[in-house]
UniProtKB/TrEMBL annotation:
Organism encoding this protein: Ructibacterium gallinarum
InterPro entries (alphabetical): HD/PDEase_dom, HD_GYP_dom
Keywords carried by this UniProt record: Membrane, Transmembrane, Transmembrane helix
Membrane-spanning ranges: 6-30
Protein name listed in UniProt: HD domain-containing protein
Pfam families the record matches: HD_5
Coiled coil regions in record: none
Location of the HD-GYP domain: 38-231
Length: 240
């Protein structure tokens, strides 16, 4: 009887192990697909929000998408990790502008002092709108603090140095790059050499020196290019 039990164990145990491994593989595949589907639904929802923002602010259409691309690349240079969180956070950094008057977002001139005061409300509005994103806290942090400056002269809280969340420092640099690289109401797009000079000159004042250095490397190495709205080549990497 004992020998029979040993024989059955010797035969059945490998089969049981194979079945268990197969079940685990199937479950892992199901979880992976569910995670991909969930992320795609999230990304599609965010894109819908960004389309609404672009409709309100056609002068800067595609801005949030380009900032997201550069933020992910910059985060990689800084070994920050969490690419899809960075991507979502950067896409939504200007979400607070959804509650600003349409006519204010559509202006193509330098804002007046009164208009500037209203525009500067969008980080706190963005923080309010993203308060429920507890699974990805970087979303709210980027929305709230991407206009802070390393020397403490930014807004809305006047944070300085390491007190500014790293995701906000990353998005701030990507945001500034896109603003400089594209035509604005009061000037044309800046040349690459001038953009590099701006990052070096404002390192330690507007920008975290470590982030500014990484950004100049990123631009100088031509590790990425300006992505126009509608180019989705990075999305599959974010969704994996």
């Amino acid at each position: 009887m004992h020998g029979y039990a040993l024989f059955i164990g010797a035969v059945l145990w490998p089969i049981i192990c194979l079945l268990a491994a197969g079940i685990c593989a199937v479950l892992a595949a199901i979880q992976y697909q569910a995670r991909r589907k969930s992320r795609k639904v999230t990304l599609d929802t965010i894109r819908a929000i960004m389309n609404a923002l672009d409709a309100k602010n056609p002068y800067k259409a595609g801005h949030s998408y380009r900032v997201a691309i550069w933020s992910v690349k910059l985060a990689s240079y800084l070994h920050y990790g969490r690419e899809h969180e960075v991507y979502y956070a950067a896409l939504l950094h200007d979400i607070g502008k959804l509650e600003l008057p349409d006519k204010l977002l559509a202006i193509n001139h330098k804002p007046s002092p009164d208009e500037e005061k209203i525009l500067q409300k969008h980080p706190k509005i963005g923080a309010k709108l993203t308060a429920g994103t507890t699974e990805i806290p970087d979303v709210r942090l980027a929305a709230m603090f991407h206009h802070e400056r390393f020397d403490g002269t930014g807004y809305p809280e006047g944070l300085s140095g390491e007190n500014i969340p790293m995701i906000a420092r990353i998005v701030a640099a990507a945001d500034a790059y896109d603003a400089m690289a594209h035509e604005r109401a009061t000037r044309g797009a800046l040349e690459r050499g001038e953009i590099l000079r701006q990052f070096r000159e404002h390192s330690g004042t507007q920008f975290d020196p470590r982030v500014a250095k990484a950004m100049t490397r990123l631009i100088a190495d031509e590790a990425c290019r300006v992505h126009k709205k509608g180019e989705n080549d990075l999305d599959p990497q974010i969704l994996d």
